Amino acid sequence: MITTRKPATQFLTAAMLFVSAGSPALASSDETLSIATIELTGSPAEMEQGFTWLGDGSETLIGLVNTIDTLAYDDEFAGLFIRLKDATLTTTQVEELGAALTRFRDEGKKVHLFAEGYGTADLLLGSFVDEVMLQTGGFVSFPGLHMEEMFLADTLSWIGVKAQLVQVGAYKGANEQMTRSSPSPEWDENISGLLDGMYSNLRAIVKDGRNMSDRELDHAMEIAWAADGEHAIEAGLIDSVVDLPDLKEHLSDFYDAEIRWVKDPYAVHQPTMDFSNPFAFFSQLGHEQELHIDHPTIAVLHVNGTIIDGDSSSGGMFGGGQSVGSRTIRNAIEDILKEDLIEGVVVRINSPGGSAIASEVMWQGVERLKTEKPVWVSVGSMAASGGYYVLSAGDKVFVNPSSIVGSIGVVGGKYAMGELYDKAKVHIVERSRGPMGDLFSASKPWNESQLKVIRNQMTETYELFTSRVTAGRDGIDLSKTAEGRLFVGSDAIALHMADEIGGLDDAINELAVDLDMGDFDVVHYPQPPSFEDFIGNMLGGFLSAPGLTMGTSQIEVTLRTLLGDRRYESVVDTLNGLALLREESVLLLNPNTLIFR
After folding, report:
1. Strand partners, 304
2. Pair (46, 81) in one structural domain
3. For the chain, what is the domain count?
4. For position 570, what pLDDT does the model report?
5. Is the pLDDT of residue 542 over 50?
6. What Cα–Cα distance (Å) separates residue 432 from each residue in 437, 581, 584?
7. Structural domain includes residue 102
8. If you average pLDDT over every residue of the chain, what do you get?
9. Adjacent-strand bridge partners of 586
10. Cβ count near 214 (within 10 Å)
């Protein structure tokens, strides 16, 4: 459980902050200045997962933002040094970190960024700092944006599988990767417009941060699609080339003073575990972390992953991405309602959608929550389809410029594998009772009367979806925003799909101002799993089918190596989403096999 104390001074306007003590400027040569250092590895988590002593202790995104904001007003520190070490940041994470770095620099302090190599997202982060440093011998790659889509209809036909997927919404596109060999004109328009919006935001960040014109940026991208340090400096994308052992001397020259590194300021160290005493060890493990709310609090409710019925899961049928369960969210909402000191709630959404039923259950829960506490929404990377369904229940919605929102539409169907069975010499004997007993037969496709039943159900779901959106988003025009259309956050504001540009920290702080709160705590829900749940999730598959679990793990490692992390996660998320069709015929799911490079 993460509990963070937020002093009121952290969300005063810039005009009100001028009375605070001045930040340390460049020092005289006989001074020693403290430089805070932060190392970014991998991708920051949305929330603490529990039992971090078993993992790599990765920092959360909101934790990083809070650290940077606290450093901005801490007179001990003259600057901030950030080292990228195999970081895999998303564009929206860069935007939220960048906003915090801008606030830090507004206090007159400097930010330095260092990496062995820079890709697109890394260079975007570099647009929010004072100095971008490259390791001697390092490489810079800034070619632009590239997107890949997979269309598998011909592949499925070749192996004898017929995908009967129907969608409501001409621009939805969620069925096309399985039913077509190329995109429809509507989907092509939709996804191309989304890519245009993302590219426009990328260019705006770099031009503003690196003080470039359009012509200068075009030239930089032409020569720095693959560049060494010298050419990257010439392109205006980095500032200096420094060997790692010389960093301290380099920064001492920059500040004209001796410097002192302070690694991970304000870091909260995890309690050590006594492995030498097994009785004490298991006693510590069995002691669940208790939550005590004794101060005015804002709760952050995380809707993170593919939306499913039941309990949240750390991975789907095919491994990979996280799933968020309707039961888990409703239980968290009930916990929040019991706490009188929780004065407001921010729902943090990072979801491509999923189960239509689970999305409605979550929507009902947020509506119930709104009757007792104000509920605002913060969108991370995506609130699409079922994710946008849940979003529509919020009172006020914050998005990052590059957040993906929309996909108001429905997809449903099944896979008929009769021809595959025939090719494999598998003989199926079917028996059914009742007029709809064979509706979800895996051997044969639907007939016209069965298709009509499915279409009617999907139309009803779509009408309910759009009614939720129009009720929650005053002024929205469904003729411009529905039928599966996708938008970046910067375009969503004018369409009344969202209200303000800002990250999670902005939503929390502005809600606190709106509620006239002074100092307050921030508590994140759902709570991390208990030790029993953690062990059960970790060992459940192994205990039930050890051979399959070990084999699946080896396959996952192989596929990750071949595809890369981002391609693998994208493909797996799609497979997990489509696997929901085994349990539900109608889904609120955004097409997921979109691979950006």
Report:
1. 350
2. yes
3. 2
4. 62
5. no
6. 5, 20, 19
7. yes
8. 85
9. 412
10. 9
pLDDT of amino acid 585: 60
Give me the mean pLDDT over the 560-583 stretch: 59
User: Which domain-ending residue is among 263, 284, 310?
Assistant: 263
Q: Is residue 142 a contact partner of residue 220, using CB atoms and an 8 Å limit? A: yes
- Going from the C-alpha of 77 to that of each of 9, 10, 74, 266, 312, the distances in angstroms are 18, 17, 6, 12, 41
Distance, CA of 200 to CA of 208 (rounded, Å): 12
Q: Which two tokens stand for residue 209?
A: 């941060």
Locate 124 and state its tokens.
């975007």
More confident residue, 576 or 531: 576
Structure-token pair, residue 119: 């890709």
Give the domain extent around 72. 3-142+224-263
Please name the amino acid found at residue 436.
M
Rounded Cα–Cα distance for residues 42 and 460 (Å): 42
What value does the mean pLDDT take over residues 194-200?
A: 96
Q: Which two tokens stand for residue 307?
A: 């939306």
Percent of the chain at pLDDT exceeding 90: 70
CA 460 to chain CA centroid, nearest Å:
30
Token pair recorded at residue 22: 């001045």
Q: What is the reported pTM?
A: 0.86
With beta carbons less than 8 A apart as the criterion, state whether 595 and 147 touch: yes
Whether 488 is in a domain gets the answer yes
Q: Which two structure tokens, joined as six digits, stand for 460?
A: 């009803």
Q: What angle do CA 481, 487, 492 make, to 5 degrees?
A: 75
428-443: pLDDT as tens digits: 999 999 988 889 899 9
362 shares its domain with 464: yes
Whether 41 and 162 map to the same domain: the answer is no
| 160-to-219, 416, 418, 451 alpha-carbon distances in Å | 49, 9, 7, 20
CB atoms under 10 Å from CB of 85, counted, come to 11
Tell me, yes or no, whether 545 lies in a domain. no
Give tens-digit pLDDT for 369-391.
999 999 999 999 999 999 999 99
What per-residue confidence (pLDDT) applies to 189? 96
d(CA 302, CA 525): 6
Outline where 259-310 has alpha helix (H).
278-286
Instruction: Kindly list the distances between the CA atom of residue 345 and the CA atoms of 177, 293, 406, 497, 522, in Å, as whole numbers in the listed order.
Output: 37, 14, 22, 20, 10
Q: What is the pLDDT of residues 330-364, one digit of tens each?
A: 999 999 999 999 999 999 999 999 999 999 999 99
